[in-house]
Write a structure and sequence with these properties.
CATH architecture of the largest domain: 3-Layer(aba) Sandwich
Radius of gyration: 21 Å
Length: 365
């Protein structure tokens, strides 16, 4: 029997009556609804002054780079999803890839310092896997060097560190509601968040083809599907109980696996949403052996991510710069890509499935 990786098929069965109600409400409306309810809910949760719903988090990141373009450089982690760097190329700027810590999988201040030049205009900081690290020192570095701190919190809705919620840090932030996120839409979705009204007004225009009083600038078709927004807003109300269950599962995984694989490092003050539960192996061969074993129990475990961003063929032609390891290693981003694996960690996993997963891993190692 297949083990559901994201669990949304099971969640639908649990809440299908509510989804039928939301769909019926959408179908009988004489005029199109709006995303304002969802935007208000996110504003209430984060405390951000302005929240703008868009088609996806890639657009939210691209719109975050307002005013940045050709000749400018933007610092970014070399270990993330492609949107983190492709949005930089979309606006004509140059992505500058920095290395990560193997403890947190987050971009390091040392690498940031080494890669900063007088062309550096912004840093996109990604909270990977829903985890968070203390960014205060990096934020101060950015302020002192005139660099915009842009928070990529696509994976970290629900997480907080020392009381600071993901989505509230820096000049602007973004959430993703893609199908693999802890709160997902039925057709993806993204949220742009800022305390800068001028920037928010810009995003409101360009998400709708640049429309103000008339079409004032080149824009995009980046509106969120209204029924999608309604479903996301409902799922936000369920987020706390789902997150509680994911934390229970994470504790079981950690207890059973911590002596045989490298589990995520969790800061004491972190309230983790566990978007992903990531383990790391000694090398590729051990990882392949475990992945093959998990297939025998109906689980196709995922790898996030199989190669550093800069190693994708896109960057054969796209202008970029990247770090050079300070020693003889291939760099931490490459090491992580060769050794990480993500385990399912959704609220609808059964105890039997959890036992089967960790026991299969232990036997395969």
């Amino acid at each position: 029997m297949k083990i559901s990786y994201n669990g949304w098929d099971r969640e639908y069965q649990e809440n299908r009556e509510m989804y039928h109600i939301l769909f019926d409400q959408a179908m009988v409306k004489e005029v199109e609804g709006s995303t304002e309810g969802l935007e208000s809910a996110i504003a209430s949760y984060t405390g951000r002054s302005h929240c703008v719903a868009v088609a996806n988090a890639t657009d939210a990141l691209r719109f975050s780079l307002w005013g940045i373009g050709p000749g400018d450089e933007v610092l970014v982690s070399d270990f993330s999803w492609i949107s983190t760097s492709s949005c930089i190329s979309m606006v004509g700027a140059t992505p500058v890839f920095c290395d990560i810590s193997l403890q947190s999988y987050h971009i390091t201040l040392d690498s940031i310092k080494r890669m900063t030049t007088n062309k550096t205009k912004a840093l996109i900081y990604t909270h990977l896997y829903g985890s968070m690290s203390d960014t205060k020192e990096i934020e101060h570095w950015c302020i002192n060097n005139g660099i915009r701190f842009i928070e990529d919190s696509a994976q970290s809705l629900g997480s907080s560190l020392g009381g600071r919620k993901a989505g509230t840090i820096g000049e602007c932030s973004s959430y993703s509601f893609n199908g693999n996120k802890v709160v997902a839409g039925i057709s993806g979705g993204g949220m742009f968040m800022t305390d800068n009204k001028e920037h928010a007004d810009y995003v409101k225009r360009v998400r709708r083809h640049g429309k103000d009083k008339d079409f004032t600038e080149l824009g995009y078709n980046s509106k969120m599907f209204i029924t999608n927004a309604d479903i996301i807003q409902y799922r936000l109300t369920q987020m706390p109980k789902w997150q509680e269950r994911r934390n229970e599962i994470a504790a079981i995984y950690t207890k059973e696996l911590k002596y045989d694989v490298i589990c995520q490092n969790i800061p004491v003050a972190l309230e983790h949403n566990f978007h992903k539960f990531v383990i790391r192996f000694e090398g590729k061969e051990q990882r392949k052996r475990v992945k093959d074993a998990l297939k025998t129990i109906g689980l196709n475990a995922s790898i996030h991510y199989e190669k550093p961003l800069s190693k994708n063929s896109l960057y054969i032609t796209q202008k970029h710069r990247k770090y050079r390891p300070v020693d003889s290693t291939l760099g931490n981003s490459r090491i992580a890509s060769d050794t990480v694996m993500s385990l399912p960690i959704h609220a609808w996993l059964t105890d039997e499935e959890i036992d089967k997963i960790f026991n299969t891993i232990l036997m395969a190692i």
